[in-house]
Amino acid sequence: MSQWLEESADASPQARESPVGQSVAVTRLRAEYQDDAFGIATATPRLSWRIEGAGTEWHSDRYELTLERSSGVDSVIVHSPEQLFVPWPFAPLESRERVRLRVRSGSGFDWSAPSAPLIIEAGLLEQNDWVRDLISPSTIGGLTDGAPLLFGEADLAATPVTARLYLTAHGIVEFTINGRRVGDDIFAPGWTAYEKRLRYRTYDITEHLQAGPNRLQALLGNGWYRGQLVWPENRSSYGDRLALLAQIEVTYADGSLETFGTDASWGAVSSSILFDDFYDGQRRDMRIADSPEGKAIDTVDVQRGAFHRLVAPSGPPVRVTETLPAVELITSPSGRTIVDFGQNLVGWVRLRVSGAAGDEVTVRHAEVLEHGELGVRPLRSALATSAYILSGRPDEVLQPTLTFNGFRYAEIVGVPELSLADVEALVLGTDLERTGWFESSDARLNRLHENVLWSTRGNFLAVPTDCPQRDERLGWTGDIQVFAPTATTLFDTAGFLSEWLEDLAAEQKSDGGVPFVVPDVLRDPDPAAAAWSDAATIVPEALHLAYGDVGVLERQYASMRAWVEKVRSMVGDDLLWTSGGPFGDWLDPTAPPEDAAQAQADPDVVATAYFARSSGILARAAALLGRHADAEDYADLALRVRAAFVSAYVSDTGVVHSDCQTVYALAITGDLFETDHQRDGAGRRLAELVSDAEYRVSTGFVGTPLILDALSKAGREDLAHRMLLTEACPSWLYAVSMGATTVWERWDSMLPDGSINPGTMTSFNHYAYGAVADWMHRCVAGLAPTSPGYRTIEVRPLVTGDLSSASARHLSPYGEIAVSWRLENGSTKLSLSVPYGVTAEVWMPGASAPTTVDHGHHEFGSTSSTP
């Protein structure tokens, strides 16, 4: 970016607002990925904003940043039209420093009004900022002891002017001060590669504290740190002792500072929670008070040496994002009481009950019913049950806090007279801003899109998981690799996925091998799986395209390069990757229930195609970052791998080895051909396969995100629409026709007779096949980015007549883009709204060239309803 800086002078004519500029608003000033830049992790945060209300005469050519800090006010003018991730032009922030920032935009001799201020407060940026240590109960709080409650005191000399809590744990923590919960986040501090990166969170606790003694308490749960993961009885993946680090920093009116927090003076007692586990659930005795009064007090041990691992978050935390009422009470054939919430979700059941002291209430969760009973077989070993021993108080509220479940149905035992008003579901998930909407004339497609949204919400919980209900819930790299473009369309995942990528890099092996799950609890010593490990390259590229963030490529470049070099070291002189790992085109619909990896697509074809793809991604990243030698090397590698692929797997007529939908999808979208004759032949053969299958899907995890794009690229948009709209299994709409409210792991997770697929891999909330929503946005509605951050877009709906209308909205980094089209009297009418900073190329059906438009609202008409 070419730019130069100058000091701002308010007396300059250019520093005055003008009538033209008064209509221009600078909005949503952000630091890094955060609207609320509290406890930020960097001393030099990059800044972004939107420009609204600009007319056609407005062309930003500079911006002014004004920073208020304790040392004074500093303003800088930067001559650049950029408004995304612009560099911090001031002296770096210091730990704990709180500043106030505004921006305004300039065009010619005009200036906009200043933006609303953004308050930025730095977290603890240096290791020596930490003066408190982790503490752990000395004798209680073992694996079978239930959740321990740690407690201490902060005796303040006066009422504080400001107070901050810096908090982390081995496990998950709920912190209270004087009996009042701190924060609204759930499962803090979240799941990271604990041995290398331990997240801490920052809280403003000024209003929680008072002069004199203050009671500090922390309830510790097993969470991901010590709870069961992967398989039965596999607990303590990271350690066998829970621990807490709390550092409280208080500033008084006279400017003096005082620090409190965890040390050897704290104590520990047992809590009311007798058992907690993410897979199995929670057991709580409501008769036991969560306080140290009247209990035997345990000492604590101090654990030192955690400071080098501590990192501040760049994404939002897990929160309760919605509350859903129960919609139906069901009595099962066996006489059980089952509550239906009408939606497969992730979260908690909350009950209001009255009963005698000592009575027990249990809540067991499942996603589906099978023959009228709770369908628990897909849970495998997970018990997914919360139990409560009642205290005898009237209208007692029961809900778990140290576990979560994926469910639509809950079987409740121990409440003889349950009413719908007594039960509700609390929806949990990482608190991501929604950014994508889609609607069409087909209600089934609209429901499919909603299903994709719900699967994203449920599985984006601390990390991008595969499923939220059974004994797994892991950050599978293959799942997020195929889904990343859809995720970035539907939600603002910039901070969330950037954090996850930092864990991927931290878990990566010294030879470049990328684990199958991140954080890595499988601990494979030599992980390398085509399409799974390729998340190291594909997810950063998806984030760069969606958000215009070159920084994510810079941070991940070493990881990306190490992965491609790992594959290069594994292949021979022929450049064919024939050891591509255990997954292949996972869950191909022809695979038997007991072997999800047994696919039609030759795994060597899949692996070599991914080698070419990742090499090309790395070449493009290197070029963007100015690593010219690398860019040349990896571009050449990608070409040579493509040539090797064609030589080994593509015939002169375009037939691809193993001749199934997935291999053609890979070859066509990856342009793995040498001649037009091969391209055309492959497109014709794919069309034949789809027609022969009666438009049913014949792809697994690898082929599914690409199949409709491959058909579109081959000029068969008609077949793509027919495949999308078919209800015959396997298809996207089969699950919709069966009443699904989320995306299924298998095309036939539930069989037509209402029985559950017997395969061990059977989840009813698994977002991978939901990657189709990206194609729905780009090709059905016609809204596709063509440069990073949606700086340029292509509006090109594939209107085939199968639908009479479609629309999409997307909150891009520049603002809202909205497109809608409808068929009307034999012509296509299209409406488009473009925010400032975005340029659109609009291709109407039948047009031989696009129309280019800038910001504003635009209307188009076409006399042809088909391309």
UniProtKB/TrEMBL annotation:
Residues 1-21 are annotated as: Disordered. Gene3D superfamilies: 1.50.10.10, Galactose-binding domain-like, Immunoglobulins, Maltose phosphorylase, domain 3. It catalyses: Hydrolysis of terminal non-reducing alpha-L-rhamnose residues in alpha-L-rhamnosides. It is an enzyme of class 3 (hydrolase). Transmembrane segments: none annotated. Residues 332-427 form the Alpha-L-rhamnosidase concanavalin-like domain. One of its GO terms (molecular function) is alpha-L-rhamnosidase activity. Its EC number is 3.2.1.40. Residues 782-854 form the Alpha-L-rhamnosidase C-terminal domain. Keywords: Glycosidase, Hydrolase. It holds the Pfam family Bac_rhamnosid. Residues 433-780 form the Alpha-L-rhamnosidase six-hairpin glycosidase domain. Residues 160-322 form the Bacterial alpha-L-rhamnosidase N-terminal domain. PANTHER family: ALPHA-RHAMNOSIDASE (EUROFUNG), ALPHA-RHAMNOSIDASE (EUROFUNG)-RELATED. This is alpha-L-rhamnosidase. It comes from Microbacterium murale.
